[in-house]
Amino acid sequence: MTKRLITPQSEKVFFFLNACLLLESSLNSLFHKQASPLPDHLSLSYFPFEHFICLFFFSLRSLLFCRSRKKVMAEEGTELSDKQKKEIAKWFLLNAPAGEIQYVAKDLKSVLNNDDVYDEAASEAFPVYNKSHMICLEMPGRFGDVLVTSYGELQGNEYLDPKTAQVAIVDHVKQVCTEVRPATDEELPTPYVEEYRCALEAELLKYVGEAYPKGSCSVYCINGKDVEGPGYDFELVAVISAARLSPQNFCTGSWRSIWNIECKDDIQVLELKGKLQVGAHYFEEGNVQLDAKHECRDSTMFQSPDDSAIAIASLIRHHETEYLASLEVVFNVWLISIPCASYRYLLTVEA
Amino acid sequence: MEAAMGLMRRMPPRHSETALSALLSLLPHNSSDLLSQVDLPLQVLSDDDSGKRFILCEYNRDADSYRSPWSNKYHPRLEDAPYPSSKLRQLEIEANDIFTVYCDQYYEGGISSVYMWEDDNEGFVACFLVKKDGSKTGQGRRGYLEEGTWDAIHVIEVGPEEETTRYCLTSTVMLSLTTDDVSSGTFSLSGSIRRQMNMNLPVADGHLCNMGKMIEEMEGKLRNSLDQACLLLCSFELPLHVYFGKTREMVCTLRPPSEVLPMRLPDNGVVHVP
């Protein structure tokens, strides 16, 4: 028995790709028609929507390809435009697991075989990736490490390190810190806010040092940086980022938590809002990824800087520890649910 | 092509369909290679003649129709379609019956299908497929999960019939688990692994017996290495699958699990507002 050699799927793919690309390009041209009379800086504002449309068709394409089984013959030939290629390249870069973007970039470069498109995609995707993964870079000149986060972002590629009051200039694509300069007074909070920020940072550094091997943390003031004394609200953000990368063992893992701390002066309350995210990737003889997210809230009394810091740090410790425990419970539930020889194993356990 | 497979190894498995279609659009000339090397979640179709469902794959497809292992008919109907020889079809029927029982034991239900076809060098190829839905809405007997599917593909190439026949098994397992819980957030674990195993076995024992042994051993192997990995893992009674164990180990080493035990509420006059 010989199977028919033609693979109708590939023809279908071409057809649907072509159909979608036609739609996409007509939409794109629509955008450009609208955008062209506008000055350059305004036409930029169309970009996110256009991006969304592209992604929408992109997912539609995959949907059609997977669900539809109608046999349609179509001609090959419609090449993707550079813009579409760039969007696809960005999608790959942004979906890279923690710490693996350089490997993805290397593979992507050879798949694309077009350095201009790659460079453009990389210059747009790397900053977003670095900030969302809160990567940790070493600053030149014994200043320690700086976390690349949107909370510490100043203009250009400059990121504030509140711990050392230095500003790191970052090369996103190479993922290195190239230069360091001292922060100006405007970039730093007032002594009153700094006292709270610094006390919390000290407490959290203690906690992170105990709980996370290779973890780093930073505390930023994102609102009310210029508050001079009691009577006004301000807001701090504490971020914790820990990564364990061992590509030689085919696994990577990352922990990210972001804690917004609103200091409400009028009601003397500190309100905490936490976002925790865990990811892990195992890729020997396959590709297995874990992705877990959690949000939580809590509050405590507004006290002196030192007491507030201790209270916040213990709340963070409590919530993160509890979350880790619930993660273990979920693993246990999964484990029972995973079939494949579990039957026999359960029998031996019961025996 | 190598780079494309490298990308597929790193993209989130739950987006593998999007990733594949992106690669297809970037590399139209490698489309058949890509389609044959990337495994997507299995699809199921209902066989009206037998009232049973069967699994769709590349091995029971011709043009746009799929052959049901239960009625041996193509869905939708197809003229001039290839069928296995009557001898092989007999083996296929037997294999389907046995594999259904096997799945009921090991997988506590699920949909199974076995397909066989002759290959070019006087041997044949058998493909054992299982699709198990363990989610709340699925047919699984344990409905803990929001979403929980498990697809297994075992392809065995059987060499020409001699005293001892060469069996070459390639197993792929695809898994997707999601838990969504207000108190603990969302967790998702998804992925696929592929392993190979070769054996020379006496044909006197029968092909089905030999193939069954290999599949059982393959699954046992995974379980064994799992127990090994378990010693390294946190102190848990029930071990996870080795690969899933590894991903958990990663999470645990990010934060040593000893942290879990001394869970102490803050004792410095903190006011808790739930």
UniProtKB/TrEMBL annotation, chain A:
Gene Ontology annotations of biological process type: actin cytoskeleton organization; barbed-end actin filament capping
Highest taxon of the lineage: Eukaryota
One GO CC term on file: F-actin capping protein complex
Membrane-traversing stretches: 12-31, 43-64
GO function terms (MF aspect): actin filament binding
Pfam families found in the cross-reference section: F-actin_cap_A
Transmembrane in keyword set: yes
Keywords, in A-Z order: Actin capping, Actin-binding, Membrane, Transmembrane, Transmembrane helix
Annotated family: Belongs to the F-actin-capping protein alpha subunit family.
Job of this protein: F-actin-capping proteins bind in a Ca(2+)-independent manner to the fast growing ends of actin filaments (barbed end) thereby blocking the exchange of subunits at these ends. Unlike other capping proteins (such as gelsolin and severin), these proteins do not sever actin filaments.
Assembly mode: Heterodimer of an alpha and a beta subunit.
Protein name: F-actin-capping protein subunit alpha
Taxonomic lineage: Eukaryota, Viridiplantae, Streptophyta, Embryophyta, Tracheophyta
UniProtKB/TrEMBL annotation, chain B:
A biological process term (GO) from this entry: barbed-end actin filament capping
Domain of life: Eukaryota
Subcellular location: Cytoplasm, Cytoskeleton
Entry GO terms, CC: cytoplasm; F-actin capping protein complex
A GO molecular function held by the record: actin filament binding
Family matches, as Pfam families: F_actin_cap_B
Binding partners and assembly: Heterodimer of an alpha and a beta subunit.
Protein name (Swiss-Prot/TrEMBL): F-actin-capping protein subunit beta
Species of the source: Gossypium australe
Organism taxonomic ancestry: Eukaryota, Viridiplantae, Streptophyta, Embryophyta, Tracheophyta
